[in-house]
Specification:
heterotrimer; A alpha+beta; B alpha+beta; C alpha+beta; A: alpha+beta; DNA polymerase, domain 1; 6-stranded mixed beta sheet; 5 helices; about 20% strand; B: alpha+beta; Aldehyde Oxidoreductase, domain 4; 3 domains; 5-stranded mixed beta sheet; about 30% helix; globular
């Protein structure tokens, strides 16, 4: 059973520890705290965006134990003891990840609002499949809507990244 | 005319590459201020009615609620984007006009409390009959939505050039077709957000918008503020496509609520509310009649168009004019009649969306002209070649067209797509189609009446010459305007692009630009920063000349110089100032700039742009006249499942006549995105409302179906090498909107080629195709 | 958007979970992947006072083949677990392929098969193929276990035979004589679309004669339904395009679709005809695909 305290308004607040981008963070949150708000409000990780908030657009995509999920429909409490990787955790120190480099090279973003989710989905794919077909790339990002690019340069960037892993 | 440039014409990386790929780019909703409150709008739950009472007492008692405002708390001056039709209030006074209309606003200490407060606010209405279609709005005795629009008629346009009836009488073939467009919406992923705070009598507003200037102007006008007292700022914008040009209720509410509470207030929309904010594409009901000679030359064209406007005008008057004003730019039509009406209805207002007013009429015309060609046995591309405008010409309406190579675009698209081998030859269920389009490169007039320049630019070189700041309030909504403006400024200065930095999105700190609409920024802000860069260069060359002379490195009267060294003998490229005839004699821009600073203070360059008097004298000429026009041809190839009606767009080609291309990789990105929106609107996208209550039915991305990566075909984006526009800086003209205008026609024509049934009703859904195929079978044709 | 307040429990065992559900009654909802529940709560369709997260019930996350029983799929397996599962790919890739067509990748990584089934959405992608393969569902409650045929599980839109204290533990695909199976989903775009029609079939074909057939339809009635007349028609017939087409016509007469913003009843009915025919052809020619 999760441990909780009761605040002055009578709301239960639960302790949760989530490993985000390699570090453990323990916070006390209400049960209705969504992972996306946990990341943005508690940890100031603004790269994870709020868009449709119903799991349709993918701009809040993060990896949960390595798998791409929509942080807008995951409870923070359900992530207790688990690993979350956000767009801020994709790069290795100062060095950009190959996916990020290829997104820049191919101009695979415009307004940039879908980009963090798009990059997380792409990286999650390449972690599992180092040699994806074009169809597999499109399938992996089909849950990430991008109104600006028509996906043309995104697909090219991910395929190019795969070749240069 | 074309030159080798250091930056212009090069695919440099976007200036926001690092922040946007690492999650560090901040959008309005990412900003936090100490003590910030959160707010939302109170919205109508009925389509049409009088407000009897608004009871906020329960909400006010809720712990954490800081302020609730309604019409009685805010100025009552009306506003809008068309000065002739100011008809919108900050909050509804007396009447609500659509399900979702703005009644007031609430702010509280956190988001959760705002949602809880909204539930406790009770609005009582006297419900009035709602009018949800233009057909109902136009009926005799229909309920009146606005007193000022009798018969709910918001505007009407009657243009007649030449003598259409006489020309039709002489035509070899005359054909009439009817088409219906649908309501679509921009579908940017970032919802609108506005955050404001006050410092004494000065307000600061961060707005997710397409024009900091228009937001500043309209807010100050309505709130009675001096423009110098309202700073409008903008961070990264998660795209706009026309949907973030109008001030939103959030902008007004944030400024007013932060004044009342003395705390910063962040107002935000949820995704469904961006649909309610509206301003997307008008559904148009269109009837086209064309008469041609036996070769397919258009002798006369008649276009009758009705726009279903929704509740307010917004940019709807311009949308109406755009529906008819650009056809005569694409094709040579001596006799042209355009009759248009726009009705108001009890739905969210329609407005401008990529290609403003034009994509549906282009769809209709491009399909109609194929049907005309088919009847007289002329190939679709030949129909277009016969009628396409050539450059350096004047349209029937009086618009001056400089560069224009629609002919070249058609030929290139024809050859690249394998048109001749494919058209009509791909068998049942496969088809190829062509569509033409194009757009203005900036509007000839400001949206409100002013004699201001349309764009003002400035370059400030940092004290020691190690950085150049490029100033312009042109808004980068993702299209990459910051990058291309810096490329042009750097080119003009002869300074390294990599060391330029944009100063933008701030009405205090940066310089006037009207913003991102009408495909104007690259040309207009481009001229402004290019001229500013050129002025810097002039000062640098003068100072360098002085320095070289003082250095003794130049001896007057040397053989290679005719007389004393003058600035004209020097040039500056990529940060190196050199003697043109003796490039080894050089200085760095940096050292010259530093010396300039020591001797004169800040090294500044200023530039501005005004299009001046442009062509066209008829009423409404303002919408359509432009310094430059792009043209474009697209070819699409589709597969249609002849049993289920499912459509798959499998391959596409675009040729855009876009003048000089400043940044090829960003240019192609515009074409891809434009095609994407166009194909989405052709097959999948439509905003739906309940037919009785006017309630939004699909305000989400599950049921408002943007194409996914699996639905989107490859796009081959091609360019015409010799395209050069004399009215554009470096010879450029637009791409962003023009490339969305041919798409619906191209795809619809490909569908026709595949299935042999003409689809005239957008979107061309799988079910509509299925039904058309079934009906065709039943009729035995 | 906003998620209303609730209390949160994350029991460590199935027994504890059932006990909690029994105690809490109507005011509790089970949270597995949340891809449906979170959305319904945000849209104010549901407002449970208590959410019981089953995230800790690891024993429900297995897929295994048990000789004599069949393939057992734990209720907390995600759709992508099914897509990537070797056992299924080898024996019933028709099930993996059905799972692969659900929603989008992020949702397939979270959404569980237990959730997909127990939500009883008429357009759900997995029930038709499970029904075609004659799968059963093991339910666990405070009073013990019971097994129900998948086709008997659904009682209406959003309604099942599950008692308040019961959880779906596993789905069992029995060993079978069916030689092929296939599910065709028809959505209005290629990803992120609910099925407008879903047709699943399983067939036993020997020497080009159809010995047995099961046809299950999704999104065309209040629950997934079998097209029993079409099945009866097929039994004993020699395979031919005409026979499969006729089976499609019969199946389309057995569905009772509604019209909504996605499609008309008329269209859905005809799609059943088309996809029954196509799914049969696929299952006959290519096996369990």
């Amino acid at each position: 059973m999760s441990s909780f305290v009761v605040d002055k308004d009578g709301n239960k607040r639960y302790a949760v520890t989530v490993n985000v981008n390699g570090s453990d963070y323990t916070k006390v949150v209400k049960a209705n705290t969504l992972l996306v708000n946990f990341l943005r409000e508690e940890l100031d990780l603004i790269g994870t965006k709020r868009g449709c908030e119903l799991g349709d657009c993918g701009c809040c995509t993060v990896m949960l134990d390595g798998k791409a999920v929509n942080a807008c429909i995951v409870l923070a409490l359900d992530c207790d003891g688990r690993e979350v990787t956000t767009v801020e955790g994709i790069q290795d120190g100062e060095d950009l990840d190959i996916v990020q480099e290829k997104f820049i090279e191919h101009a695979a973003f415009q307004c940039g609002f879908c980009t963090p989710g798009m990059i997380v989905s792409s990286r999650a794919l390449l972690n599992e499949n180092t040699n994806p077909s074009e169809y597999e790339v499109r399938e992996a990002i089909a849950g990430n809507l991008c109104r600006c690019t028509g996906y043309v340069n995104i697909v090219a960037a991910v395929l190019d990244a795969a070749e240069n892993l | 005319m074309k030159q080798d440039y250091s930056y212009v014409g090069h695919s440099v990386d976007r200036n926001d590459s690092y922040t946007k790929t690492t999650g560090r780019a901040q959008y309005t909703a990412d900003l936090k201020f100490p003590g910030m409150l959160y707010g939302k709008l109170i919205r109508s739950t009925i389509a049409h009615g009088r407000i009897k009472s608004i009871d906020t007492s329960e909400a006010e008692k809720l712990n954490g609620v800081k302020a609730i405002i309604t019409a009685k708390d805010v100025p009552s001056m009306k506003w809008g984007l068309s000065p002739a039709r100011f008809d919108e209030n900050i909050f509804c006074i007396e009447k609500v006009r659509y399900n979702g209309d703005k009644i007031g606003a609430v702010c509280a200490v956190d988001e959760e409390t705002v949602y809880k407060a909204l539930k406790l606010i009770k609005v009582e209405y006297e419900e009035l009959p709602a009018v949800l279609t233009w057909q109902d709005a136009a009926k005799e005795g229909a309920p009146q939505i606005f007193e000022e629009y009798p018969g709910n008629l918001n505007t009407e346009i009657h243009h007649h050039f030449g003598d259409v009836d006489a020309a039709l009488k002489d035509a070899y073939y005359v054909r009439t077709d009817k088409f219906q467009g649908q309501r679509t919406y921009h579908a940017f992923i970032e919802n609108h957000c506005s955050t404001a705070y006050w410092d004494g009598d000065r307000a600061f507003l961060y707005s997710s918008c397409q024009s900091v200037h228009y937001i500043q102007y309209h807010l100050c006008r309505v709130l009675g503020m001096k423009m110098g007292n309202l700073t409008v700022r903008q961070t990264n914008v998660g795209a706009g496509f026309g949907g973030k040009l109008d001030p939103s209720g959030l902008d007004f509410a944030a400024v007013i609520l932060s004044k009342i509470t003395g705390q910063p207030v962040k107002m935000f929309y949820d995704h469904a509310e961006t649909f309610l904010n509206g301003r997307g594409r008008h559904p148009m009901t269109m009837e086209l009649t064309t008469g041609v000679d036996k070769n397919g030359k258009i002798l006369a064209h008649k276009f009758d168009c009705v726009l279903e406007g929704g509740a307010y005008t917004g940019l709807g008057i311009a949308s109406s004019y755009y529906a008819g004003s650009l056809l005569g730019v694409l094709y040579l039509i001596d006799n042209y009649k355009f009759d248009c009406r726009r009705y108001v209805t009890n739905l969210p207002p329609c407005g401008a969306q990529r290609g403003h007013g034009q994509p549906q009429p282009r769809f209709a015309f491009e399909h109609h002209i194929d049907l005309v060609g088919e009847a007289i046995g002329v190939d679709p591309i030949d129909m277009r070649l016969i009628n396409a405008r050539k450059g350096n010409s004047i349209t029937t309406a009086g618009y001056e067209v400089k560069s224009y190579n629609l002919l070249g675009a058609n030929k290139m698209a024809r050859d690249a797509s394998g048109w001749k081998e494919k058209r009509g030859k791909m068998g049942v269920g496969r088809g190829i189609g062509v569509g033409n389009g194009g757009f203005v490169t900036g509007a000839g007039f400001c949206q409100y009446r002013t004699d201001y320049p349309h764009s003002v630019g400035m370059v400030k070189v940092f004290d020691d010459g190690t950085k150049a700041y490029v100033y312009s309030n042109a808004v980068d909504i993702g299209q990459g305007s910051d990058t291309v403006l810096m490329q042009m400024a750097a080119e003009a200065m002869g300074y390294p692009y990599e060391r330029c930095q944009m100063v933008t999105g701030d009405t205090d700190l940066s310089t006037l630009d009207f913003g991102a609409y009408a495909s104007r920024q690259t040309l207009m802000a481009g001229w402004a920063v290019k001229r500013a860069g050129a002025e810097v260069k002039k000062k640098v060359l003068a100072k360098a000349c002085e320095m070289l002379k003082a250095s003794g490195r130049i001896k007057e009267g040397f053989g290679y110089l005719d007389g004393p060294l003058t600035p004209e003998d020097l040039d500056c490229v990529e940060g190196i100032v050199f003697v043109k005839q003796e490039p080894a004699v050089k200085l760095t821009f940096e050292e010259v700039a530093r010396k300039y600073f020591v001797d004169h203070g800040v090294l500044l360059g200023r530039g501005w742009y005004h299009p001046g008097k442009l062509g066209g004298n008829h009423k409404g000429a303002a919408v359509g006249t432009s310094p430059a026009y792009s043209s474009a041809t697209q070819v699409a190839e589709v597969k249609v499942d002849m049993e289920t009606g499912q459509i798959e767009c499998v391959d596409t080609w675009d040729v855009h006549d876009s003048g000089t291309i400043i940044n090829p990789k960003l240019f192609h990105g515009q074409v891809h995105g434009a095609f994407y929106m166009g194909v989405g609107e052709t097959i999948w996208e439509e905003v739906l409302f309940d037919k009785k209550t006017g309630k939004l039915l699909n305000g989400n991305f599950a049921e408002y179906r943007l194409p996914t990566a699996l639905d989107m075909p490859p796009v081959e984006s091609l360019t015409l090498d010799d395209s050069y526009e004399p009215n554009g800086p470096y010879g450029l003209k637009e791409v962003g909107e023009g490339a969305t205008t041919p798409t619906m026609g191209a795809v619809a024509n490909a569908i026709y080629d595949a299935m042999g049934v003409s689809m005239t009703d957008l979107p061309i859904t799988y079910e509509k195709v299925w039904r058309a195929l079934r009906d065709k079978k039943a009729s035995g044709k | 958007m906003y998620l209303p307040d609730f209390e949160y429990y994350a029991p460590d065992s199935i027994a504890e979970a059932c006990q909690l559900l029994s105690q809490l009654g109507e005011k509790a909802k089970v949270l597995a992947g949340g891809t449906d529940l979170m959305i319904k709560m945000k849209n104010e369709v549901l407002a449970p006072e208590v959410v019981v997260s089953v995230k800790n019930l690891d024993q429900l996350k297995k897929i295994e083949y048990v000789a004599g029983k069949g393939v057992s799929v734990g209720a907390l397996c995600t759709h992508n677990d099914l897509v990537k599962c070797d056992v299924l790919k080898e024996k019933y890739s028709s099930v993996s392929n059905a799972a692969r067509q659900m929603a989008n990748n992020q949702v397939r990584n979270r959404g569980t098969i237990g959730g997909n089934i127990s939500n009883a959405v008429p357009s759900a992608d997995l029930p038709p193929i499970f029904i075609a393969l004659n799968a059963t569902v093991k339910l666990v409650g405070t009073k013990g276990e019971r097994t129900v045929a998948m086709e008997d599980l659904f009682t209406g839109p959003g309604k099942t035979v599950l008692a308040q204290d019961e959880l779906i533990a596993e789905v069992i695909i029995p060993d079978q004589k069916m030689t092929g199976s296939n599910y065709i989903k028809f959505g209005l775009r290629k990803s992120g679309a609910l099925a407008v029609v879903g047709v699943a079939v399983a067939v036993q074909v020997e020497n080009n004669v159809i010995k047995d057939a099961r046809v299950a339809l999704g999104a065309v009635a209040a629950t997934p339904v079998r097209a029993k007349k079409a099945e009866d028609f097929l039994k004993g017939k020699t395979v031919s395009d005409e026979v499969l087409a006729e089976a499609g016509v019969i199946a389309s007469g057995e569905c009772k679709p509604i019209s909504d913003i996605r499609a008309s009843a008329e269209y859905r009915t005809d799609l059943v005809r088309i996809f029954t025919k196509r799914a049969l052809r696929k299952a006959i020619d290519e096996g369990h695909v």
